[in-house]
Amino acid sequence: MNFEHPFKIGNCQIIPMEYAIEFDHQEKQSIQPKFIDVICYLAQHYPRVVPREELIEQVWQGNAYVGEKALTNAIWHLRQHLKGCDEAQQDVIETIRKVGYRLLIKPENLQAVPEEKTENSPQYQRGILGSIIAVVFLAVVIFNFYGSELPPEKNQISQITTYPGIELFTAPSPDGKQVVFKWLSPQTSGNLYLKDLENPQLPPKQLTFGKAYVGHSVWSNDGRFLFFARKDRAKKSCQVIQLKMQTHQEKVVANCPLVGGYYYVDISPDDKTLAFHGYMSPAENSGVYFVDLTKDNSQAVRFSCQFDCGYKDRDFSFSPDGKTIAVTRRVNRFNENIFLVDLASKQATQLTFGEEDIVGLTWHPNGDKLVFGSQQADIRRGFSVDINSGKTQDLQLDGFSYPSFAKQSGQLFYQQRTEKYHLASLSLDSDIASTPFPIIVSKFSHQYPHYSPKSDKVAYVSNESGHYELWISDTDGKNRQQITDLQHNIRYPRWSHNGNKIAFLAPIEDEQGDKIYIYDLTTKTLSVVPSQHNEHNRPTWSWQDDAIISAVYEKEYTDLHLIDIKTGHSRRITYDGSRYGVMTSPTTLVYTQTQKGLWQKELSDDTSQPLAIISDQNFKATYSWEYHPEGVYFSQRHNKHYLISFYDFQQNITIPLHQVPRNLFNSQTSITKINKTNELLLTMAESPQADIRAIYHPMLP
Questions:
Q1: How is residue 149 annotated by DSSP?
Q2: Which of 258, 243, 326, 256 is nearest to 291 (CA)?
Q3: Are 519 and 484 a contacting pair, CB within 8 Å?
Q4: Which of 300, 353, 446, 489 has its Cβ near the most Cβ atoms within 10 Å?
Q5: b/e map 291-303, b = 16+ CB within 10 Å
Q6: 3-class DSSP state for residue 8?
Q7: Cα–Cα dist 701/698, whole Å
């Protein structure tokens, strides 16, 4: 059915033809077309419970892969938009667990017209005639405009790189004839390379050399220069480099901080201002800095907020007219969205909602759209957002990340990357080095295992449902069971000592913070620890299972707290920047800071000082370790691999157990031991693959 007329739901009016909602005596709010389709379908079938599968079939034409995630996103946004429809500010849409959704308020003035047209109907015949005329007219226009040379074929994906290793962070030249990327080959630590697209048979040309870190790069708009940041920890230097493409001469245009990661860069359309991501004192967090390229020895000036911001600016892209800059702002690990910031006033407008991790963004050359990559539950997808209407479109490109337009040709280049994680067991009984063996083999990702000897079960998270939800299984991966259906990405499950409960971390409804959740397997109930803090880290349990130990992130400090699961009363138990800890006796805490050794503290005595159990020279793991009375199993990063080892307390020696290639090991994984089989469980990654691709996309004229 097609809805042409507005209808009411409580205090608001739905206007399908305008894709808008209007509250009584207020201005209209535009929302995405798919959101309108969902609310119209629910209204049409009021008061019936509409199954999720039916909504996906009707709204997304049965595309379950896209629809599963998109429907959840649509319901979340509709609830936010429709809160004012009910006088009591209650939800207008009810979720019927494992079934579907139901509209709770009866729609008024609902009118729908049928879409069907028979072959003999005048409407059908006029439609056919109109289509023929349109096709003929379009053919004439194309021939007159292009002559014998037709435009590039839409939606034709070009494979730019297929080399061993992975290729990252594409930067096309303005004319689209060359592309620069970072190549992590098996033999190198990662440098920048140039691919000549007019001579594809030639190997890529290396632009940077050595072991210094380089990442994102950007061409000047005249195509003469390439800009990138180079961090050399050995020399304790970080510099923003201008590389002249014709002669390969380098010039330092600014110093950048050693603290930082990706070093995003972009240049203004007039080639006068270079922006880069970093951190400089006295700012509280990393942010965006500007360098004036018209002046020699120009000092970097911070553009981002410095204090009491409530977010961190990360990636960014100048608009083609040079008046605004699009910035990704991360509130926490569950919330990162795109904002449009006016360069003159610094006034910001939010463009995307409900995103978790933005993996690259770029402006369409005509300036009316942004294209971005979004990662949810380790699944990457490409989207475009109209900056005027705020409407978002799915580009139907899997693995899409870090896009960049060739500004003159309009061709879209991007990094196609797939990642998958699985649970693996490492036998400790073998006389020779064994290989971690997957215990669950599927097309989905599974992470963060923790074993309970009391329940003899493994808790972990899996993205089989489209989000990382809580699952449990036997130690061999059999008898798997999904425990939660929060439709949010949860992390870090941890069994209680008695094996009855599992604690984990998940975002709160508005995604402005996170909370510690507890699932009770005895009563099959889910509860939230009433903590006074907004940001927590990996939860573990007190010895009596009546409190949670978690690092909390406050403005002044980050340290471990003991949080009562019933009252939420919080007691700070460390004062040295600790991140993760476990109780090894009723009063003894063993914990880590950030790669600074393993420490022990007696909680029964507030005056006791921490004792270093293993020095930071021998122990740099922050999270991937498992304590046992006889010693500690842990992972340690080396130049080209991770080494899983055991530190023996009695002999005070480290015993190497297994060497894992760096790209196959998740350094943030938990490590858990199953004593009855004498094996370790951990998270392993399938060899990640990333290639550079290009496309003229039909949704991006």
A1: -
A2: 256
A3: yes
A4: 446
A5: bebeeeeeebebb
A6: strand
A7: 6
DSSP string, 513-543: SEEEEEEETTTTEEEE---S-S-B---EE-T
pLDDT at 147: 39
The torsion defined by the Cα of 607, 613, 618 and 622, in degrees rounded to 10, comes to -60
* Closest by Cα among 584, 654, 668, 663 to 622: 668
Alpha helices in 82-194 (DSSP H): 122-146
Find where tokens 């599927």 sit: 442
Report pLDDT digits (tens) over 186-244: 556 689 999 999 998 889 999 998 888 888 999 999 999 999 999 887 888 888 999 99
Q: Is the pLDDT of residue 504 over 80?
A: yes
User: Is the pLDDT confidence value at 265 over 90?
Assistant: yes
Q: Is the pLDDT of residue 255 over 70?
A: yes
C-alpha to C-alpha distances, 648 to 432, 505, 652, nearest whole angstrom: 19, 32, 5
Q: Is the pLDDT of residue 418 over 90?
A: no
Reduced to 3 states (helix: H, G, I; strand: E, B; else coil), residue 684 is strand
Q: How far is the C-alpha of 82 from the C-alpha of 269, rounded, in Å?
A: 40
pLDDT for residue 136 = 41
DSSP string, 153-168: PTT--EE----SSEEE
Phi, psi for 369 (deg, rounded to 5): -140, 150
Residue 623: predicted pLDDT = 94
Residues 160-188: what's their mean pLDDT?
86
- Cα-Cα end-to-end distance for the chain: 30
Query: Which residues sit opposite 636 in a β-bridge?
Result: 643
Residue type, 666: N
What residue type is 320 in one-letter code?
P
Which conformational region is residue 87 in: left (phi greater than 0), alpha (psi within -120 to 50 degrees), or beta? alpha
Residue 82 exposed, middle or buried by CB count within 10 Å (0-12, 13-18, 19+): buried
Residue 78: how many CA atoms within 13 Å on its side-chain side? 28
> Which two tokens mark 334?
């569950």
One-letter amino acid at 530 equals: P
Percentage of residues in the chain having pLDDT higher than 70: 89
Between vectors from CA 314 to CA 309 and to CA 316, what angle results, nearest 5°?
A: 115
Is 47 within 8 Å of 107 (Cβ atoms)?
Answer: no
Under DSSP, the state recorded for 17 is G
On whether the CB atoms of residues 252 and 240 are closer than 8 A, the answer is yes
Mean of pLDDT over the chain:
86
Sequence-distant contacts of 507-512: CB under 8 A, at least 24 apart: 507/332, 507/334, 507/335, 511/331, 511/332, 511/334, 511/335, 511/354, 511/356, 512/331, 512/332, 512/335
DSSP sequence for 306-318: -SS-SSEEEEEEE
pLDDT confidence tier of residue 137, bands split at 50, 70 and 90: very low
Q: Is the pLDDT of residue 104 over 70?
A: yes
**DSSP letters spanning 346-404:** --EEE---S-SEEEEEEE-TTSSEEEEEEEETTEEEEEEEETTT--EEEEEEETEEEEE
Q: Is 198 helix (H, G, I), strand (E, B) or coil?
A: coil
